[in-house]
Design goal:
CATH architecture of the largest domain in chain A: Orthogonal Bundle
Helix content of chain B: 40-55%
Distance between the termini of chain A: 49 Å
Distance between the termini of chain B: 62 Å
Helix content of chain A: over 70%
Mean pLDDT of chain B: 87
Number of helices of chain A: 15
Low-confidence stretches of chain B: 1-36
Structural class of chain B: alpha/beta
Largest interface: A-B, 42 and 50 residues
Low-confidence stretches of chain A: 1-12
CATH topology of the largest domain in chain B: D-Maltodextrin-Binding Protein, domain 2
Number of strands of chain B: 14
CATH topology of the largest domain in chain A: MetI-like fold
Number of strands of chain A: 2
CATH class of the largest domain in chain B: Alpha Beta
CATH architecture of the largest domain in chain B: 3-Layer(aba) Sandwich
Number of domains of chain A: 2
CATH superfamily of the largest domain in chain A: MetI-like
Structural class of chain A: mainly alpha
Number of helices of chain B: 18
Shape of chain A: flat
Largest sheet of chain B: 4 strands, mixed
Oligomer: heterodimer
């Protein structure tokens, strides 16, 4: 009697499964103990996280459907906070402003640090100095940096930026005082203060690109641009994608710059979603509407992240 | 990594976390244990800023004497100024101060939200309570309940730099009295000195605040209550239009408002102290101490009447002391005692007034800044007489302002949702001052819609 091939295959695979299961059984008490220990060690951290992060998140979702003065017990109001929010004529303006800020800050904030990193990695000398200089703005406390820029952007001929531009015959520009220029001014500040971190991350990623690839390209007489286009960028795509997503999320949550520099002005030109949340909560004491808007923002960010990850899945896993 | 090392590392991370949580919780316990039945500890606002050393010394002396006179009360003072943004969260977290020191714009919202206590029973026992100025008290009393006591009151007026007036060929003893004159003077200052003729502020609700104050001088109002008791925006009219036209002309025709129109009150105080601004509108008695403490020349400080557009009215406000709704009865009583000690007696009890004035003068603090009195006119006159020998402020520089106080009608700020309304008006003022082609009518209509939406939301 001969065994059918599939029967044989089945027997072999059965045996393999049994062996693997036996091995698992042999290993499992140890493994389980290790897992238990890990869990025990994690419990305090989980508690802290739960209490200070997850519980407040849950609470704030509830708060979006309540009205409270934080003294008396909160009152359940259903979707009224959302109705108030959607009736606010400032909401579309703030959403558009936030989108405009995001687009502008990606248009400037993505290529500039990448370009700087590529150029800096090509430096034969002074690389450390360049890195220090690039990272310096990150070290300055954000509010101080933003206030400094407020002085730089002073309108009139004596403003720092304006007197520099006057050398090439431009201006004087109104910067923060102009409804059109206020937002781009904020983007310049945000890029300036955030670029250092991105540059360092790009530099680290660049260091990880195998030099053999470049050597091979040089043997093939590839130009600098070709090396960047066919080696550097594809090798760094994972980092670029993550940073891009972080930048999108960060830009949509922009707050410090408009709050400190313009307070949303002039004429609502720089009112952002976060500034609205802040005003609802801390200026008008309407915590329900503020959390309703926060919840909406969180949902939008989750959707954007999911869509983004889906769209870029093929590219990032290539 | 070796498993044992990994565990040790995990423990290193986790232990401080637990310790941190434990520290948080024990801190909370201490706070609640501190308030026993016999001994009361109250946290109060209103300690002068640390930079004003003389004022801090005087304050601390007053605290010491108060604690000596009331051994069962301990005062914990803070120099953190009122901040609507953090107050509610501190209230929710149980760390709000017992005694709040707030501008008069705040009480309506605080009372509406039930965040402040009724102190009628303890306050009415104070000697000076019945003499408090009803013009201010009307905003602090509701249906027999008393929610606060004024520390000082003010009315809008013109703050100006006498030196700049002289440089511009203007008479520092006769400040402008109408908006037309303000416009003329500002243009002259800007042209002859190159400095900002008339300073304006537009962010953090200050644009709406100023628009309101200016609108009053043209006989306008910001909101009105109709016969059914419903509040409606009432500023889409000629008086507000006059204010906006004036701003537009000064900004774009005369160029006398300077380059920076996107600032707040503190920015303008700094610019004014530095001698870069000719005139602006604020509460002169409130600005003066900050101006002097920041190094401004007392002799250069001028206070004029609120410029008028025909209504003979001015926006009036006050700094008010209120007690948190979370205070116990004992804390409430202690807080009112302190209010009497620090804010009322030195302005009412003539002996204490003279002593306080003497000590302040010795410390180099301004004594005798003419104010809109928190007590009756008679009580104020007696107080001025009692402190007369210690007055170290150039009172004559305030004469035009003081004269106007008796002549103008005091108009309060909007009693409903004032901060939200101001926030909705800021962009309107900013649009006029940053966009040469701003359409006044369209902006007014737009702002009216917004304010009505805010009022409707408040009513619901």
């Amino acid at each position: 009697m001969t065994l059918a091939p599939e029967r044989l295959g089945g027997a072999v695979s059965d045996r393999a499964t049994r062996a693997a299961a036996a091995a698992r059984r042999r290993r499992s008490p140890l493994r389980r103990r290790a897992a238990l220990a890990a869990l025990l060690f994690l419990i305090p951290a989980l508690l802290v996280f739960g209490y200070f992060a997850w519980w407040p998140i849950l609470q704030s979702i509830l708060l979006a459907f309540q009205q409270t003065n934080l003294v008396e017990p909160a009152e359940w109001v259903g979707f009224r906070n959302f109705e108030v929010l959607f009736a606010d004529p400032l909401l579309p303006k703030a959403a558009l402003n936030t989108l405009w800020f995001t687009v502008l800050s990606l248009a400037i904030g993505l290529p500039v640090p990448l370009l700087c990193a590529v150029l800096m990695s090509e430096l034969r000398r002074g690389g450390t100095l360049a890195r220090v200089l690039a990272y310096l703005p990150v070290v300055i406390p954000p509010v101080v940096a933003v206030l400094l820029w407020k002085v730089f952007f002073s309108p009139g001929e004596t403003g720092v930026v304006n007197s520099l531009l006057a050398l090439v015959g431009i201006g004087p520009l109104q910067w923060l005082q102009s409804p059109e220029l206020a937002m781009p001014s904020l983007v310049i500040v945000a890029t300036w203060s955030g670029a250092g971190t991105a540059i360092l991350i790009y530099l680290a990623a660049l260091a990880g690109v195998s030099t053999e690839l470049y050597e091979a390209a040089e043997l093939d007489a590839a130009s600098v641009w070709q090396r960047v286009r066919y080696i550097t960028l594809p090798q760094m795509r994972g980092i670029i994608l993550v940073l891009l997503l972080l930048q999108i999320i960060g830009a949509i949550q922009v707050f410090t710059e408009p709050y400190v520099m313009t307070d949303g002005g002039p004429a609502n030109a720089t009112v952002t979603i976060l500034l609205m949340i802040y005003r609802y909560a801390f200026l008008f004491g309407n915590y329900g509407v503020a959390t309703a808007l926060s919840v909406l923002l969180a949902i939008v960010l989750i959707i954007i992240s999911a869509v983004y990850l889906r769209l870029t899945r093929s590219w990032s896993s290539r | 990594m070796h498993r044992r090392t990994r565990r040790a590392l995990a423990a290193l991370v986790v232990v401080p976390l637990i310790a941190g949580t434990a520290a948080c919780s024990s801190g909370q316990n201490d706070a609640t244990n501190g308030t026993g039945d016999d001994h009361v500890t109250i946290s109060i606002m209103g300690k002068p800023a640390a930079t004003n050393t003389a004022a801090v010394e005087l304050f601390e002396r007053q605290v010491d004497e108060f604690e000596k006179a009331n051994p069962n009360i301990t005062i914990e003072a803070s120099d953190v100024p009122w901040d609507a943004k953090t107050f509610a969260t501190r209230l929710a977290g149980g760390s709000a101060p017992t005694l709040l020191r707030v501008p008069l714009t705040e009480p309506p919202a605080l009372i509406e939200r039930g965040q402040v206590a009724d102190i009628a029973d303890v306050a009415s026992e104070l000697d000076s309570f019945d003499d408090l100025n009803p013009r201010v008290m009307q905003f602090l009393e509701r249906d027999g309940a008393v929610y606060g006591i004024p520390e000082k009151s003010y009315a809008f007026g013109l703050v100006y730099n006498r030196d700049i007036f002289e440089q511009a060929g203007l008479d520092p003893d006769s400040p402008p009295e109408t908006w037309d004159e303000v416009r003329e003077y500002a243009a002259q200052i800007a042209e002859t000195t190159g400095k900002t003729g008339f300073g304006e502020i537009t962010t953090n609700n200050s644009g709406g605040w100023h628009l309101t104050g200016y609108d009053y001088t043209f006989g306008g109002s910001i909101i009105e209550q109709d016969s059914s008791g419903e509040w409606k925006a009432s500023f889409n009219d000629d008086s507000a239009r006059d204010v906006l036209e004036l701003w537009k002309a000064m900004r774009w025709e005369d160029d006398s408002l300077g380059d920076n129109v996107l600032g707040k009150q503190e920015d303008l105080v700094a610019e004014f102290t530095a001698g870069n601004v000719g005139m602006w509108v604020s509460a002169p008695p409130d600005v003066y101490p900050n101006y002097v403490a920041a190094g401004g020349d007392p002799e250069a400080f001028g206070a004029g009447p609120m410029p008028q557009g025909g209504a003979d009215a001015t926006l009036a406000g006050a700094t008010v002391l209120m007690v948190s709704a979370q205070a116990t009865e004992a804390e409430k009583a202690a807080a009112v005692k302190w209010i009497d000690w620090r804010a009322l007696r030195p302005n009412y009890d003539l002996e204490v007034a003279a002593e306080t004035a003497k000590a302040s003068a010795a410390d180099g603090l301004p004594v005798g800044v003419p104010v809109a009195p928190i007590f009756s006119d008679e009580a104020y006159a007696a107080y001025r007489e009692a402190i007369d020998e210690y007055v170290n402020v150039p009172v004559e520089n305030f004469a035009p302002y003081v004269e106007s106080l008796g002549a103008f009608e005091y108009v309060p700020e909007p009693p409903v949702a004032s901060q939200e309304i101001y926030a909705a008006l800021d962009p309107l003022v900013q649009a006029i001052l940053t966009d040469q082609n701003a359409d006044i009518d369209a902006l007014l209509t737009d702002a009216e819609t917004r304010v009505n939406a805010i009022l409707a939301q408040h009513a619901s």
